[in-house]
Amino acid sequence: MRWQLSSVICRLCFFSVILPYFGLQGESCRYPLAVMSALSGADLDMGQLVEIKSMGDGIGGGRGVFAKRDIRAGEVVFADIPLLATEESEPDSKELLHVQLARRVLQSEQRETLLQQLACLYPQSLSELTPEILEKARAKHGGTLAYLASIQAAPAMPADDVLLVLLKVCFSAFCGGIYVRKAMLNHACRPNCIAFQPGQRTSSDGRVLSAAASEVVATRSIAAGEEVTICYFVPAERSRPGRARLFEEQHLCALGPSGWPREMDSLVGDV
């Protein structure tokens, strides 16, 4: 889980220099991803530039975010304020960030309100998961589930409800916290956008452009009707085996076929 929840590193030079070298300026490769909302596009306001649409395939409800109009390279697609921001851990803390976020939801005095706001995230219920994914989830998170169930606020939620919260966080959280709208974005190894953490994007004179919100910015021109994607790998430059391994670790399912040429692997090694 650490790879998705670690600090985001901006790799704009990679998308503007390395990918064009291999002729990879075309449409980004989309993968089925278990972080999409089970809501219809009308249920969540994504702003003026993009909207959620049903795609009819993929894990997590088969939905994605699509451009309403042509979007220019460098344009802010949307900004999102975290529902729950990550807190800095104590130096000796061994608590992973996804566990911290799930714990804080379960211990919050506003737990019911937070759960209502998290309801749109995949999975809405454990029945949405394939038997294979559910089996993997129980095996992988058994110890964490017992810990979270033991420290949650009263009244105690059933173990399966605690697991549901944990999986929503694991599948959808980012290093800065839980972002509901940003969680609607599908992953692509060749994305057309990059997600900046609050305070990370600056102007040419060093001014912070958005201190409170995470901004999703287009790295190239995006045509109306095209899917808007970000890369969940940190860093983005990873080999095929490395991408597949990390995706399986995070989402408990296989990564789809990649559009990257195998020559990329010789540049980054098995990472």
TrEMBL record:
Keywords: Signal. It holds the Pfam family SET. Residues 1-20 form the signal peptide. It comes from the Eukaryota. Residues 48-233 form the SET domain. Gene3D superfamilies: SET domain. This is SET domain-containing protein. It comes from Cryptomonas curvata.
